[in-house]
Amino acid sequence: MPFTASPLVGGDAYEMAQRLALEVDAELSALSDAGEQLACLRRHWDAIAGLGWMATMVAEDAGGAGGDLSDVAALACGAGRGGLPLPIATACVVAPALLAAAGARDMLAQVAEGAARICVILPDAAQDPGATRLSFDRTLEGGVVGVETPPDPTHLLLATKAGELLLLSVDSPGITRSLSMRIDGRLAADWHFVGVAVAQEQVLARGIADQADRARDLGALITCVEGVSAMGAIIEQTIAFLSDRVQFNAPLASYQALRHRVAEMYVEYENLRGLVAHALREAAATDALPWRDIALAKLRLGEAGRLVAHETIQMHGGMGLTEGVAAIRLARRVMMAEFEFGDRSFQADRLLAQVA
Amino acid sequence: MEVDYEAFRREVTEFAQTRCPPEIRAVVATYRKLSRKIWQPWQQILHAHGWGAPSWPKQFGGTGWDPQQRHIFDEVMAENDCPPQYHHGLRHIGPVIIEFGTPEQQARFLPGILSGEDWWCQGYSEPGAGSDLASLRTAARREGDEYIVDGQKTWTSHAHESDWMYTLVRTSKEAKKQQGITMLLIPLNSPGITIRPIRTIDGWHHVNEVFLDNVRVPVANRIGEEGKGWTYGKFLLERERLGGANVAPALKNLERTRELVAQELAGETHRAKRAALELRLLLAEAELRGALALGKEAVAAVMEGRPLGLLPSVLKLSTSVTHQHVAEVAMDAVGERLAPRFRRIDGSGPNAEAPGIEWVQNYMYMRVRTIYGGSSEVQKNVIAKQLFGS
């Protein structure tokens, strides 16, 4: 029996998420028109909201399911195998964590029922070189780019460097945006703010910089879970491809050079899987988030994920450069994950700051 | 009976910190070469405490610990710079004698291993049989109550300070080369044995060539049946599969290399180089933390009687390379000033070598990690076979 990856967190939710992700992938890969793709994403966003994904971590008294991190991890595991192009970590973990930290119960309820589609801007969001830095002093000025967003966002949840948490309607005067598709087929928005007036009641909280860091780390952990899942699926699909494809009168799977490369992919995958499983266990066992474990895992995701992504492209040959191959679409998901919730430099800097 | 593992860890820690002599720990901490001179007194201390054989059953003088306890023991020892116990007797031939030896053999050999009085080495590899061990050609022919052994072993670690060599020899030529192999226990003071050191790239003396020229070995020194040696040899290697689960020595090594980098490259002049090396160490640490988590999974699997699957191969592959990466960082920190001073030629005595030269030796030595104990290439073959299903 060839290799089949076992999920970090299995169960019904995992199975359901996987089925859904594969359906969406099949549907999306048949579309080439951006408008149709957007509509498809929106439809599936509504579907997962209807299934209660975004309510998973919201407390029961705020209208949620009162689940824990492993419930979201099960969803992320399943979604990761199909590269579901929706912002799962942000929607299921980061936004709820920020809103809970601010005690914003009404908004949490709206998130839980899917009425609010929130784009979260974290303090370290990317900016174009030379652009006006994002600043907030009664009005909001500046811009951020490439921020992952749900389809048709209704709100912006913005955590400032100073530790404020702002909730703005996307239609507020002075806000403009432009949408893009990321390398993994998810949506991203550039946001520009010119003299955006922020009322007192739109400042949900102050002094929550630590909670914002925590929310980002939770997001990083879920991204790692998705990444591990995607890598497992990539290895399975690479093995299947090598076993089927015949060149020089023999299946590619018979060539030792290629077999060894797959073994290397597997070792990297297993090592990361162990680390992420450990971080998940620690996160469940302690109140304090194991940020160091998460940072190390995210660092490794950058290294191991890229190796697995590059190797599957190489071993698929010319096919590896096409969007038509599922393993290659997953590889792009893994490549994008590097830049979510702190890339390798970011994680290395904070870990090294602790060593020094 | 339920074991309190935390209490056990505390007990072992206290023992390690109070009973392992500082001079022995200093040797481990500075990467000086371990030899019988260091190991033997440590084994005596452990034995006197009843901890001479952590992996043996109680009736043979072992501790009867479960895999989790053994793992904790190994981990704590490494964390406290206690030498890992000399393995050839305790972990290799001892368990084989327990499993396949006669009562006479058990009575003759096990006590000496426990007390550290008898020192063992392994006669497996030959010039023509390395990773492909079954190709071995050292031959034994039966003459009455004796075998006459002729041939050559190589890479024989510690033969120069050992009393005995457990040896795989060919007693017949069969169609399948794994058959016709027999395991003999050979005293190294037997007439006809010549031991020559091999000069290895690290400058340490650990391996040797062992020449066997008409060496007479009593049949009573044969383990099990004639021709079944491969089974016993494999049993021994199988038992070692959890060895890679102990990542503690590698983490200790990493910590020490971090200190080296901070001291060696202190100050503004070296800022960029220091940052580059620190980053490499961090990447190594991330990998080791992954291996550490997998090691825990492996121990848990053994505790619950589940198969280990590919975990040992994965651990071996990844930790061996990470060990090497860490050693490379140390080499990059000190290489410019120490690599040129590898061997002093105008001085002698214990202080003749440049202080810190062990970092250079250790870097050289670490190259063996991906070669011994099943080379990386062999491990990848094993993994691929399983992944592809053929």
TrEMBL record, chain A:
Gene3D superfamilies assigned: Acyl-CoA dehydrogenase/oxidase, N-terminal domain, Butyryl-CoA Dehydrogenase, subunit A, domain 3
Domain of life, per lineage: Bacteria
Pfam families: Acyl-CoA_dh_1 (PF00441)
Keyword Flavoprotein: yes
Oxidoreductase found in the keyword field: yes
Cofactors named for this entry: FAD
Annotated transmembrane regions: none
Keyword annotations of the record: FAD, Flavoprotein, Oxidoreductase
Annotated Acyl-CoA dehydrogenase/oxidase C-terminal domain residues: 219-352
Family recorded in the similarity comment: Belongs to the acyl-CoA dehydrogenase family.
PANTHER family, A to Z: ACYL-COA DEHYDROGENASE (PTHR43884), ACYL-COA DEHYDROGENASE FADE28 (PTHR43884:SF20)
Designated name of the protein: Acyl-CoA dehydrogenase
UniProtKB/TrEMBL annotation, chain B:
Domain of life: Bacteria
Family affiliation: Belongs to the acyl-CoA dehydrogenase family.
Domain Acyl-CoA dehydrogenase/oxidase N-terminal: 5-117
Keywords, in A-Z order: FAD, Flavoprotein, Oxidoreductase
Gene3D superfamilies per the UniProt record, alphabetical: Acyl-CoA dehydrogenase/oxidase, N-terminal domain (1.10.540.10), Butyryl-CoA Dehydrogenase, subunit A, domain 2 (2.40.110.10), Butyryl-CoA Dehydrogenase, subunit A, domain 3 (1.20.140.10)
Cofactors named for this entry: FAD
Residue ranges of every copy of the Acyl-CoA oxidase/dehydrogenase middle domain listed in the record: 121-215
Protein name: Acyl-CoA dehydrogenase
Chain ranges of the Acyl-CoA dehydrogenase/oxidase C-terminal domain: 227-387
Species annotation: Falsiroseomonas frigidaquae
A family per Pfam: Acyl-CoA_dh_M
InterPro entries reported in the protein's UniProt record: Acyl-CoA_Oxase/DH_mid-dom, Acyl-CoA_Oxase/DH_mid-dom_sf, AcylCo_DH-like_C, AcylCo_DH/oxidase_C, AcylCoA_DH/ox_N, AcylCoA_DH/ox_N_sf, AcylCoA_DH/oxidase_NM_dom_sf, Mycobact_Acyl-CoA_DH
